[in-house]
Amino acid sequence: MKRWLAILPLLGLVGLGIVGAQKLGADKPSAGLSDGRAAPVRSFERLDGGDGLTFHEGVRGKPVMVNLFASWCGPCEVEHPLLLELARTHPDQTFGILYRDTPENGAQFLRQLGNPFKAVALDPDGQGGLDFGLTGVPETFVISADGQVLRHVRGVLTPETVDEIRGLLEGARGAGLP
After folding, report:
1. Fold annotation for 32-174
2. pLDDT digits (tens, 9 = 90+) for 81-110
3. Phi and psi dihedrals of 42, rounded to 5?
4. What global pTM score does this model have?
């Protein structure tokens, strides 16, 4: 009887682990689609020192893609060629947010790999990323002209997700937007 009682705490821990894993998996939408939430109401300082950059009201009446990246992020470097490709077809609709990094390191990263972004916002303390719902860089958001998150891609972009983003950027523009 005493041996059985010694196993109870271990069984309890295993049970809690199973329940926790199920809860974590249930919180993530399978396709990464948005819940219709609005982009954060925040003005970001720009890497180039220009006027603040906001996304909660769209950008000049167009949907946009916003990629959160960092110079210290290996996966960000992996997806960078796909961002450059997307920027060739949608140069005024691709934006970046430099997450928890220095402006100097971010500028060097973009000089070395090429800059796919119309503008780059700074998020040195990471609060802007948290406002977006960031779970870790890289992450990409497509925001409608009226500031709604249309798509949230967690992790590295793939050719398939770039095609989805391109479709959202073109589809929304084709629906009567300038």
Report:
1. Glutaredoxin (3.40.30)
2. 999 999 999 999 999 999 999 999 999 999
3. -160, 145
4. 0.76
